[in-house]
Design brief:
Length: 454
């Protein structure tokens, strides 16, 4: 782990714990910073805060004092989920105090280079796929970031022989200053998270920070089929690696209906790739390009693409029962992600959707409603989904109070040949702590309902 002069003997506030805040506070303390942690969870119910106190870190729990910044902090490291509308964050901005997320700290302490992956959709699949490609080629990759492993904890132990393959959200990227991945990837960009960012411009600007510090020896892989990304790439200093789904090109990586091409030469026939769906083709092109740039072999890439079936909670096949196939796409937290899932599955669909109300438009889903034979709704948005479905001719609309009831109603409205798809188009936080718990609840309910009806 590198030493970081920017934090040595500096007063640092870590705002919000959870996994990333705890790890950042511990590392900052090791680096010689004078660390104070502030978390809303009461101390007696906060094992992370208790452990940090035992290490000698100052801990303030159970509240966020508005005068906290009067202590003269020189840096704030905040949990990515804390919005910039937070009173303490707003005050830090007014005072000119730098605000980081722990991704910045991870980059500064790491002895290993980074590959950074972001995008509105597909970043987890791209990250996981790339990790498998590099791992099977013995490139010593480590996986980190928004995928569930705290980046600074991974970076703390990384060596120059490693490469850290990192999934990055807009929340994380908004809080970086010097972060510079050797390879940066943006899978796609669509309007999202406006409740956090306030404007589409702030959201897009945060995503694009992934390539802002790159130099000519670095690489920027981007979706050339999106004019906004193509325009942004034109101003980047890195070597540009565009990908396109619109047919073979002689440069970089591309795809048509039959093949994936690398620099104009056929790499693999698309029919041999297990990971289905047009939306996943973007992820495959981005991951393949990054693996090749890192020295991966074509043979290994082909082996992975003909064996990799996907990531849990992302169009994950659960089981087949009496001719019905059940898929868990709990990671679909916006309408665009659900649109991608609906595109991937032909035939009649029983759709389970709903969750936290963010007032996102559902218009992306309208063209697919003729194939939705039943919509099972739940959560805060249940009423809005029901109105949308009824207005678009969905024959059956039913509301469920929990996931077990939703699956029971889905099974009751399905027949052999149908796809039962959990793809909520909403965040989970109205009913579940995260999308993983929501997806696990679906898997459990599917297993219970199908076993009970055998």
């Amino acid at each position: 782990m590198k030493q970081v002069e920017q934090v040595f003997h500096k007063k640092v506030l870590v705002l919000g714990l959870a996994k990333s805040g705890f790890t950042a506070a511990r590392i900052l303390h090791q680096l010689g910073a004078f660390v104070t942690v502030n978390d809303s969870k009461p101390f007696e119910a906060n094992p992370e805060a208790q452990e940090l106190l035992n290490l000698g870190v100052t801990v303030i729990c159970g509240r966020h004092p508005e005068d906290l910044l009067d202590e003269g902090f020189e840096l704030v490291v905040k949990n990515p989920g804390i919005p910039y509308s937070n009173v303490i964050i707003e005050s830090a901005v007014e005072k000119g105090i730098p605000i980081w997320t722990e991704i910045e700290l991870a980059y500064l302490i790491s002895e290993a280079p980074f590959i950074g992956i972001t995008g509105s959709n597909g970043k987890t699949t791209t990250t996981t796929l790339l990790f498998h490609m590099l791992n099977q080629d013995k490139k010593k990759p480590l996986i980190a970031g928004n995928i569930g492993t705290v980046a600074s904890g991974v970076a703390e132990k990384a060596t120059p022989d490693n490469v850290i393959v990192t999934e990055l959200s807009s929340f994380q990227l908004k809080g970086v200053e010097k972060f510079r991945p050797h390879i940066a990837i943006i899978t796609n960009l669509y309007e999202a998270h406006l409740d956090y960012h306030g404007t589409a411009g702030d959201y897009v600007g945060s995503k694009m920070k992934i390539a802002a510090n790159q130099l000519p020896e670095d690489f920027f892989i981007y979706n050339a089929d999106q004019p906004m990304l193509a325009d942004f790439a034109a101003g980047c200093r890195a070597q540009l690696i565009p990908f396109t789904l619109k047919g073979r090109t002689e440069e970089s990586i591309s795809a048509d209906d039959r093949f994936i091409y690398w620099q104009g030469e056929a790499l693999i026939e698309r029919s041999k790739i297990l990971l289905g769906g047009q939306h996943n083709l973007e992820n495959i092109l981005a991951a393949t390009a990054a693996a090749l740039l890192w020295g991966g072999t074509k043979e290994t890439i082909i082996r992975v693409l003909t064996s990799f079936t996907g990531v849990k909670h992302r169009s994950q096949f659960v089981l087949e029962w009496k001719g019905r196939k059940f898929y868990n796409d709990s990671k679909a937290t916006n309408a665009l992600a659900t649109k991608s899932a609906l595109e991937a599955f032909p035939g009649q669909i029983i759709l389970l959707a709903g969750g936290l109300e963010r007032n996102h438009s559902l218009e992306e889903l309208r063209p697919f409603m003729p194939r939705v034979k039943a919509l099972i709704t739940f959560g805060e948005t249940a009423g809005r989904f029901a109105e949308f479905a009824s207005a678009n001719g969905v024959p059956t609309v039913a509301k469920a109070e929990d996931m077990l009831e939703a699956v029971e109603k889905a099974v009751g409205n399905s027949q052999s040949g149908d796809t039962v798809l959990l793809s909520p188009a909403c965040a989970s936080w109205d009913q579940y702590e995260n999308f993983e718990i929501r997806g696990d609840a679906f898997i459990d309910a599917v297993q219970r309902v199908t076993q009970a009806n055998d």
